[in-house]
Amino acid sequence: MRALDSGMGWSSSSGSGKANDEVIEKGKNGKPALESDHEMTRGLRCVAGYHFPPVKLLSSSSLDRIYCSMSLARDVIDHVILTVRDFKRSVAFYAKALKPLGITNFADYEGHDGHPDLRGFGDGKRAFFWLKEGKPDPQAVHVGFVAKDHAEVDAFYKAAVNAGGKSKESPQVRPEYYPGYYATWVLDPDGHDIEVVHKS
After folding, report:
1. What does the DSSP 8-state code read for residue 107?
2. Is there a single domain that holds both residue 128 and residue 188?
3. pLDDT tens sequence across 13-35
4. pLDDT value at position 114?
5. Distance between CA 106 and CA 121 in Å, rounded?
6. Residues 53 and 90 grouped into a single domain
7. How far apart are the C-alpha atoms of 31 and 171, rounded to whole Å?
8. 190 shares its domain with 91
9. CB atoms within 10 A of CB 172
């Protein structure tokens, strides 16, 4: 599939898979031309399963069609390692805070040859969020987890605060990011800014 790349900073990629009914109409200068700005930005945000901020683009009557295959969506980050001061405290916090998202601590790695011990959280199939003990630098890190709906955002907030996290922003709509952005922010025991977001 070729992603739209006409001055929008998107790269091109290729792959195989069935195209579904998701269609973006492409007009003059390679810019999408849909019936309204709302439809236009919704269409752009769904390309290959990724979400992008809304961009106001110009319409054109000269159209050709790009068929986007949602089945071509893929993960681009395999895992993140967060440095925490106290394993026991942080594992207990994240085990409770992430439970509403279906994320659990199920993989531990015993370090050797200079590699630190790790505690891995994931969906039961793979671990993608890891903790290591050391000197944390919370100002340098921001982690955002995906929620499937508003209820999961709310449940995370409640669980994280009850587990000892500090509320930064309670669950809310953030239209300045783009319509449909619903999120919450909680500081973990080391002060890391942890976000959970649902995008509709």
Report:
1. E
2. yes
3. 334 444 444 444 444 455 444 44
4. 82
5. 6
6. no
7. 35
8. yes
9. 12
